[in-house]
C-alpha cells in the first residue's frame, strides 16, 4: 500500500514538519506494510512555479502584509491556472506513482486533485490535514474523503458552512512529532502545578519561524538591560542575516542560535515562548505546556490562530513590544492566572495527533 503526503517546505516549515510527524507515525504503526513518501506539491508541478510563488508570498508578508491579508480574505476561488495546469501536471504524476491515498498538509494541491477525482474514476483516497486553527476555502472540496482538523470548533465550521458530512471529519489535533510528547515526561515540576519561581531569571525562547520573521531584534533590545530578570534564547531559523546581526550585539544573558533540529528540547527548557502564532508552533507549545505570548501574526492563517487562542484563553497577544517585560512579569506573578491557563491547556492540547491520523489512514487499508 502506498501513501503520499503532499506538503510545502518553503512557505512554512510547519506544513513540512506535520508531514514528517505523520510519516513517522505511519511507519511505526504499519510495521513497514505501508510505503509513505513526502512530496512538495509546487516542486512536483514545476520548480519554476514553486520559485515564483514562494518569492511572491514572502515579498508580500515581509513588505506588504496588509495586501496579503486582503488577498487571503477575499480570494475564495482557485485560478484557472491552479485548477487546470496543476491538474494536468498531477495527472501525469498520478499515472506514474499510483498512490492508494494522498494526504495534504498544505492546501495547494487540493483543488487540482479534487478536480481530477471529479472527472475520472481515480481510486485513491484524498485527505486534508489542517495545520492551523482556521482554514481557507481552498482546503475544502466535496471530493476530499477525510478531513483531519485541530479542534471540534473547526469541525463544526466545516459542517455548518461547507456542508461536509461529520463522519468525514476527525478532530485529531495538529500532528506534532512524538519527540515533543516524550519531552513532556520530563516536564519541570513547577510548570506542572501552574506556579513559577521568580528567584532566578525567567528563560524566554524567542522564535520567528524557520525564516526568522518578526520584530526579533526589537525584542532583544527590549530585554538587553534586564539580565537580572530574564535570559533569552533567540532562534533565527534559516535567516542567516538576522543571526549575524543579533550575534554581533547580543548581551551575555542572550543566546542567539540559527536553525535547530531539537526545538522540542528548547521549548521544554523555556519558561515562556514568544513567537508569531504559526499552527505547528502553537500546537507544540500546547503539547509542551509552555506559555505562548504572541507577537506580530501574519494576516490570514496566523491571525486566525491568534483569534482561536484568545477565544479560549490559551495565549496572550502583545501588540506593543515595549509592553512585553511588564506583561510577562505580571502574568508570571499571578499564580491564579497561571493555574487557570494550565487548566485550559489541559482541555485543548491534543496528544498523539499524528498517531490518531495514522490509525485512521491504516483503517482504510486494514479495516
From TrEMBL:
Keywords assigned by UniProt, alphabetized: Glycosyltransferase, Transferase
Chief location of this protein within or outside the cell: membrane
Gene3D superfamilies listed in its UniProt record: Glycogen Phosphorylase B (3.40.50.2000)
One Pfam match: Glyco_tran_28_C
GO BP terms, alphabetized: glycolipid biosynthetic process
Residue ranges occupied by any Diacylglycerol glucosyltransferase N-terminal domain in the UniProt entry: 15-176
Alphabetized GO MF terms: hexosyltransferase activity
Keyword presence, Transcription: no
Listed name of the protein: Monogalactosyldiacylglycerol synthase
Naturally occurring in which organism (per UniProt): Caldalkalibacillus thermarum (strain TA2.A1)
Source taxonomy: Bacteria, Bacillati, Bacillota, Bacilli, Bacillales
